[in-house]
Amino acid sequence: AQKVTQAQTEISVVEKEDVTLDCVYETRDTTYYLFWYKQPPSGELVFLIRRNSFDEQNEISGRYSWNFQKSTSSFNFTITASQVVDSAVYFCAPLDSNYQLIWGAGTKLIIKP
Amino acid sequence: GAVVSQHPSWVICKSGTSVKIECRSLDFQATTMFWYRQFPKQSLMLMATSNEGSKATYEQGVEKDKFLINHASLTLSTLTVTSAHPEDSSFYICSAWATSGRGIDTQYFGPGTRLTVL
Question: What is the pLDDT of residue A58?
Fold first, then answer.
């Protein structure tokens, strides 16, 4: 069965600092998908990225970047030059064979001005 | 991206009453929708999978007679919390799969409904 670990419960940084959110997953599937979602204080989950396991190229989207390491089963998320608006809970979620997302505990990110 | 709406966004009710929450896919059809609940400072917990035209599939430990799900059309699923009690107070979120503008299948989420049972 799929499992995901987000070991960092809460991270607090000062605005403009870079911050990396860790995600380690377990799977027996040879092909799988991984997602990151952001949940700001309003509560609405916002889709950030979907990664296919067969594509190991890292992705960058503006200040956001993702480092996928299949060998270590990690899919870490980095925010460069963080901003107060980045404050939210971030979830890493692998997709299981039933097409359901498996949710980690989430990492609460606090960006201080 | 695809839009999923929920109504109401929040509701306060007395213990023993029933509450209906609607989830709509606004610009796409969803044969399957998902219902989650989230307690404060916790992760999402899948309650059930709502299937258009058939019975919902409930996760282990979720009372199907307590949480009634109806997926009557390709754009609407409803969750009714029957005889609500204070322990049912939670944040309820629905979601559905859709294809994003970049052609990626993604699960989109509604804004959530905060239920408070007095």
Answer: 80
